[in-house]
Amino acid sequence: MINVGDIVGRKSYNCDIAFEVVAIDENGIAILVGKTVRLIADSPLDDLVVLDDERINREEAQEEAIIEAVVNQTTPKNRKKFLMGKILHVDGDGKYMKKCMDLYKKLNIYAIGIEMKEQDMPSKVLKYIHYLHPDVVVITGHDSFNRKERDDVDNYRNSKHFVKTILNIRRDYPVMNQPIIIAGACQSHFEALIAAGANFASSPNRVNIKSLDPAIIAVKCASTSILEPVKVTEVIEKTSNKNEGMGGIITFGTMRTLFY
């Protein structure tokens, strides 16, 4: 018996992704969100199997290793001489947001996290930017592509909401570095997000991305000097599916050096 909250795999996909069951409708269709990837999907209950603790623990350990690697590669030798950029992280998944916030906290990066449904982002995100004046804005959650017409944004679960959010931000903040915008989730419409005004986005090859991928990019933007461009290729190489999952444009960092 499959219940809400169970961690499951899809038998028809050889259980390639661990999902959490977040809802079950009256027709026996389960709504699934990835345990470590930013994918939303649905599946008949009879195609699902509960995954064992070993599989779950292994995936969680992999995420911890990613966090440790990012922290080790990012921490300045003398932290007090640097003022890193401020991050506003808006996420459709509260559990994923907490993971990202934990990463920012370990690096002493000032970050504000807001959990928000993807469909609410276009109408609500801008007021937080007006109030907080962040250097970096992350717009993420869950997404999926139905494998129909690739260029039609309506064939994506949440890409259209991300696009509208970016357009609203760029209407008031047209300078591409003020703020830096990192947008998208699994299989998102990369070209539409970049065209709307994102600096970094997913997913060029419509592949899945991990929960921490947007935060990894945000950390790099917050910890790169305002005098230097973010090394796009280098930071994308640190994400789960590299340039198949994330892409971006030349963008300058937001970290300032303190002299005293």
Task: Give a verbal description of the structure.
Helix 3 (121-132) packs parallel to helix 4 (159-172). The protein has helices at residues 53-74, 94-106, 121-132, 159-172, 190-196, 213-223, 232-236, 242-245; strands spanning 7-10, 19-24, 29-34, 40-44, 48-50, 82-83, 87-91, 111-115, 136-140, 180-183, 200-201, 247-248, 256-257. By secondary structure, it is an alpha/beta fold. The model has no long low-confidence stretch (mean pLDDT 93). The termini are far apart. The protein has 2 domains: 7-51; 58-257, Rossmann fold. The strands form 3 sheets. The chain has a 6-stranded mixed β-sheet with strand order 8-7-9-10-11-12, sandwiched between helices.
In short:
The protein is α/β, with parallel strands linked by helices and 260 residues long.
Annotation keywords:
260 residues; alpha/beta; Rossmann fold; 6-stranded mixed β-sheet; 5-stranded antiparallel β-sheet; 8 helices; 13 strands
Identify the quaternary structure here.
single chain
Architecture of the largest domain, CATH level 2?
3-Layer(aba) Sandwich
Tell me the CATH superfamily of the largest domain.
Answer: Response regulator
Helical content, roughly? 25-40%
The structural class is: alpha/beta
Counting structural domains, the number is 2
CATH class of the largest domain: Alpha Beta
Determine the CATH topology of the largest domain: Rossmann fold
Distance between the termini: 64 Å
Order of helices and strands: EEEEEHEEHEHEHEHEHHHEE
Strand order of the largest sheet: 8-7-9-10-11-12
Helix run count:
8
